């Protein structure tokens, strides 16, 4: 009898434990479902709140890059170099007269008929030459300088490169107004080239600040290279002017064009 009583007690306790376990599991299931439903509701609310949200405009880093022109394809951005060609103290042209260090044009040639179209299409040579980066506005004074010239053998130039992408499937005309200096009497010309093809040169002009307007064709569906070169003007009392200024809102690109800063990694020739 005592054994049967103990068995009944154990059985009753086991049933009680099982009932409590089932109650606990039921409670946990209910809590889990409640939490899951709450999570779904939050996801749904978040999804609704993100509908139409402009991430690009509100991301702090992107906004900062945009304001500084790094991520703003409409802000004028260019590469340039200002350079002389001759060492008066040694009576030699710089760097052994090596063309690859001067945009593919020998220093001695820069002073005798060199043009923007003569600059090498090789991107490595361009990277070695156009070493300065500039940010401008629709009107931009790239360079304005008066310098003392000791000898007619030496001169000073500024060469400025724009990389411009045409996002359209038609060619776009970009009208550019700029002041430049040049010395045609010594064959030190100002000039403009697009994708290695000469658009204009100053020929015989002796200019301290001549004004030129050009309408440049930017080919469809590709990135193009526009290069502007200014030579120093004729001397006056040993002083010469080097000038390159874009005006009349010339650097505000037409619809479909945008500035690109890809020279650090671009490959290929003027077709790219």
Structure description:
With 272 residues, this protein is of the alpha+beta class. The protein is 26% helix and 33% strand. It contains five helices and 13 strands. Strands 1, 4, 6, 8, 9, 11 and 13 form a seven-stranded antiparallel β-sheet that branches. Strands 5-12-7-10 form a four-stranded antiparallel β-sheet, with no helix packed on it. The chain starts with a helix and ends in a 13-residue tail after the last strand.
Annotation keywords:
alpha+beta
- Rounded to the nearest angstrom, the radius of gyration is 35 Å
Silhouette: elongated
Mean pLDDT score: 86
Structural class: alpha+beta
**What is the N-to-C order of secondary-structure elements (H for helix, E for strand)?**
HHHEEEHHEEEEEEEEEE
Number of strands: 13
- Cα distance, first to last residue? 102 Å
How many DSSP helices? 5
Regions with pLDDT < 50 over 5+ consecutive residues?
none
Tell me the strand percentage band: 25-35%
Helical fraction: 25-40%
